[in-house]
Amino acid sequence: MAIDAVGSMPSIMATRNDPMPHKFKIGQRVRQSRGGFGATKDVSGLLCEIIRLMPEDRTGEPCYRIKSPAGERAANESELVLAS
């Protein structure tokens, strides 16, 4: 990392791109449009609630902690649709 003219290290946050905003908010009801990586059973269409916003995955996609009658798990934003 280069040292700036003042002689201090630049902030890592200043050099990082702005993160993608989360599409869903805590407490919203969503449905899983498809199972995630390593899903062992069909969970598509399962009604869930967003319980926590999580950092993006390695690809920069926002992630969530969701809760359903089947339990809690992490889910990528692309796996979720707003429940009507």
Summarize the entry for a quick read.
With 84 residues, the chain is mainly beta. The chain has one helix at residues 12-15, and strands at 29-32, 47-54, 63-68, 71-76, 80-82. 5% of the residues lie in helices and 32% in strands.
What name is given to the CATH topology?
SH3 type barrels
The profile of the biggest β sheet is: 5 strands, antiparallel
Helix-strand category: mainly beta
Number of domains: 1
CATH architecture: Roll
Question: Strand fraction band?
Answer: 25-35%
| Helical coverage, percent range | under 10%
Give the radius of gyration: 17 Å
- Count of helical segments? 1
**Counted beta strands:** 5
- Spatial separation of the terminal alpha carbons: 48 Å
The general outline is globular
Question: CATH class, anyone?
Answer: Mainly Beta
Please, what is the average pLDDT? 78
List the secondary-structure elements in sequence, H or E.
HEEEEE
**Which stretches are low in confidence, meaning pLDDT under 50 for 5 or more residues running?**
9-16
Describe the structure.
With 84 residues, the protein is mostly beta strands. The protein has a single domain, classed as SH3 type barrels (Roll), CATH 2.30.30. It has 1 helix and 5 strands. Strand 2 and strand 3 form a beta hairpin. About 10% of the residues have low confidence.
Task: Pick out its properties.
84 residues, mainly beta, SH3 type barrels, five-stranded antiparallel β-sheet, 32% strand, globular
